[in-house]
Amino acid sequence: MGPFADNRRVVILANPRAGTGKSLRYLEELLASLRGYRLEPQVCWRLDELSARHAAGEWRNWRCVVAAGGDGTLLEVVQRAPGVPAALLPLGNENLVARYFGVPRSGRKVAALIASACARRIDLGSVNGRPFCAVTGVGVDGEVVHRVHARRKGHINKLSYAVPILQSFGCYRYPSVEVAFPDSGESLRGAMVFVFNVPRYAMGLPLPEGANPADGLLDVYVFQRPGLWHFLRYFWSVLRRRQR
Q1: In terms of domains, do 15 and 67 share one?
Q2: Which pLDDT does position 78 carry in this prediction?
Q3: Are residues 88 and 147 in the same domain?
Q4: Among 48, 63, 168, 174, which has the minimal tally of Cβ within 10 Å of its Cβ?
């Protein structure tokens, strides 16, 4: 953590809608455990509060900012508190970054990690000025995410994706997507594009093999043919290659 390791204040961005209703129990465990290490936890329940406190210069006294939620909460921390180490209390459904780094859903164990001041640097991707840590999709994957958020009224679980997935694959028109690689001058066209920073995808799929979040590179997969059948076939092909 460098110069932040001597700071005692730990700011927690808590997403009350992330994961299930049990989230509060894990958050309370984190708060108690941090105090046990003589650290000073403070909870932000609103995004604008975190942004305002960072803009006021308070971040210089922060040890880290904890994303108590899912991958989306982590992205909000990265965007709204630049320059400050980010920690994770994984309370979402997929928790792709936490799964990759082995961060447990345990307030006590996350507090121990924060107290140890052990940190790793990872790459960040960017989509229209917004960062991403794990994976981003262009095409039907993005349509699914859009529909899930449009329907969301509270806590969600993996079943919350079922109807949006069926709707998206049933009515999505699959416009052609072009991926350009400026360094080589090459380009690819397809129906779906996935850009990975870590080797994890939804439902715990360990894709793609070899993706490394600290190598300065992103792994790009372009699926050329549209439709649910081809989507499943492509992913099955990738999984089979990984298992060999």
Answers
A1: yes
A2: 96
A3: no
A4: 48
Whether residues 83 and 152 fall in one domain? no
Window from 2-6, 155-159, 189-193 with minimum mean pLDDT = 155-159
- Answer whether 135's CB lies under 8 Å from 198's CB: yes
Average pLDDT rounded to a whole number, residues 42-60: 97
183 and 212 co-located in one domain: yes
Provide the residue range defining the domain that includes 165: 127-243
Residue 14 belongs to a domain with what CATH number?
A: 3.40.50.10330
Averaged pLDDT score across all residues of the chain: 87
pLDDT in tens, 95-106: 999 999 999 999
- If one counts the domains in the chain, the total is 2
Q: What is the pLDDT of residues 144-165, one digit of tens each?
A: 877 877 776 666 666 777 788 7
